[in-house]
């Protein structure tokens, strides 16, 4: 379907308010489920970053490098397998994990810098924007 056909389809019954009540109810139910899943994903990521923050402090305390390419490769392979078994595009799963890994490494580097410079507890160790969470 072309963009103009898609736009026409989107401006048809929906634009005139003629969407069947059952369709609207199913759409609302599905969107509620999506919202719940999104909330769970955010909370799971928060838990993951809490763990990786501890890893970052452990690495910094023992002068270990922020990045661990062997571990990263292992995790990517593992996640690709999980994605395949879950019928999720493995390339998408890999892109997502690479994004997370890059953020984790950035946080590890900050934790290491804070440790090296004697910043107590890695200032700004919570929340995003000032997050100090690594893996």
CATH superfamily: Chorismate mutase
Write the H/E string, N to C. HHHH
Overall average residue pLDDT: 85
As for the number of domains, it is 1
What would a concise description of this structure say?
The chain has 135 residues and is mostly helical.
Q: How would you characterize the overall build of this protein?
A:
It is a single chain. By secondary structure, the protein is mainly α. It has one domain: Chorismate mutase (Chorismate Mutase Domain, subunit A, Up-down Bundle), CATH 1.20.59. Helices cover 69% and strands 0% of the residues. It has four helices and no strands. Helix 3 runs antiparallel to helix 4. The longest helix is centred in the N-terminal third of the chain and has 41 residues. The N and C termini lie far apart (44 Å). The C terminus is likely disordered.
């Amino acid at each position: 379907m072309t963009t103009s056909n898609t736009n026409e389809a989107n401006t048809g019954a929906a634009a005139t308010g003629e969407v069947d009540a059952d369709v609207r109810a199913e759409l609302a139910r599905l969107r509620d489920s999506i919202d719940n899943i999104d909330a769970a994903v955010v909370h799971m990521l928060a838990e993951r970053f809490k763990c990786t923050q501890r890893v970052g402090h452990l690495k910094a305390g023992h002068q270990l490098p922020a990045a661990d390419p062997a571990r990263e490769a292992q995790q990517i392979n593992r996640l690709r397998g999980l994605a395949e078994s879950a019928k999720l595009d493995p390339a998408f799963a890999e892109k997502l994990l690479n994004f997370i890994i890059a953020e984790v490494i950035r946080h590890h580097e900050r934790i290491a810098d804070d440790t090296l410079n004697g910043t107590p507890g890695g200032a700004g160790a919570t929340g995003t924007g000032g997050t100090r969470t690594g893996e």
